[in-house]
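User: Okay, second chain of the day. Same drill as before: sequence in, structure tokens out.
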Amino acid sequence: MTAPPIAALLTVHRLPLVQAGDLGFFLEPGRYHLLFIAGDPVKYPEALDVAVVLPELLRTFRGRFGAALVAPESEHELHARYGCTRWPALVLLRGDAYVGSIERMRDWDDYKLELERLLAAPPQRAPGVGIPVAAEPADPHHIAGGCH
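Assistant: Same drill. Structure tokens below.
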């Protein structure tokens, strides 16, 4: 059973529920879309707060972007695709191009300022998963270019 604030996004506020494979049908070229990747509300209770704030953001920014709830079975895939590191996440796209994300619950003024900044920003490459890369220490016995 879906938590009531998240279910209300679908039933009361009429947000579409999107799967990763359906994004191409949902996203309109040149239009902004905010994807809500909630995560498990038991594990990440902030998702319930974001679910309550999202309709207010849509009212405040009326007509500047659409929004959708990401289906639970697609959350991990899209969370990784857009380089999110924390739950819940709001991902702003322009058409199918990544613009940026807002992760975790924020103060109302922070949401407004960050969304204004993102709406003015150009699309960019989504950040990758942060895996540090380090060079191996030099091995005096290893011949450069040789096989191991």
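The beta strands are 17-18, 32-37, 66-70, 89-94, 97-103.

User: Thanks, on to the next one.
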